[in-house]
Design brief:
Length: 140
């Protein structure tokens, strides 16, 4: 993978409480890291020889949106032109579950059209990611 042609962004609903925003970004980042382990660099050492685990080799901006923006982006990502993009979504349904089994059961009985996305992580070709998210501001 040529990391210079790749881009990864996380878009979260800016209207959520700060704790839910942080939790959403963490969940999306962990899952994206599992799906794309080759973007994580080698472990490094500091001057004293202490080791630090490798981190992603390029920035991951956290962008702000709202439920409508997130739904629009997620809907576009189902289109054939975006099949090469790695997508992790997080919905209010997932956020409200206490166990993964509960999530599995609820998701199996919920239409995609009913999902209210609270965050989405997108990683792939820089031009395609920019096409989807280039107009969104940074979350500050």
């Amino acid at each position: 993978m040529n990391v210079e042609n790749e881009k990864c962004v996380i878009v979260v609903d800016e209207n959520l409480p700060i704790g839910i925003i942080a939790n959403t970004a963490a969940i999306l980042g962990i899952t994206m890291g599992m799906k794309m382990p080759d973007v994580v660099g080698n472990d490094v050492s500091d001057l004293e020889g202490n080791f630090h685990m490798g981190i992603i080799q390029f920035p991951v901006p956290i962008l702000k949106g709202n439920t409508e923006v997130l739904k629009s982006i997620r809907t576009k990502l189902f289109e054939p032109q975006f099949t090469e993009i790695t997508v992790v979504d997080f919905s209010d349904l997932a956020q409200g579950c206490k166990t993964y089994d509960e999530f599995i059961d609820k998701m199996a009985n919920t239409s995609e059209s009913e999902l209210k996305y609270i965050g989405i992580a997108i990683c792939g070709n820089k031009k395609q990611v920019n096409k989807l998210t280039g107009n969104l501001p940074l979350l500050r």
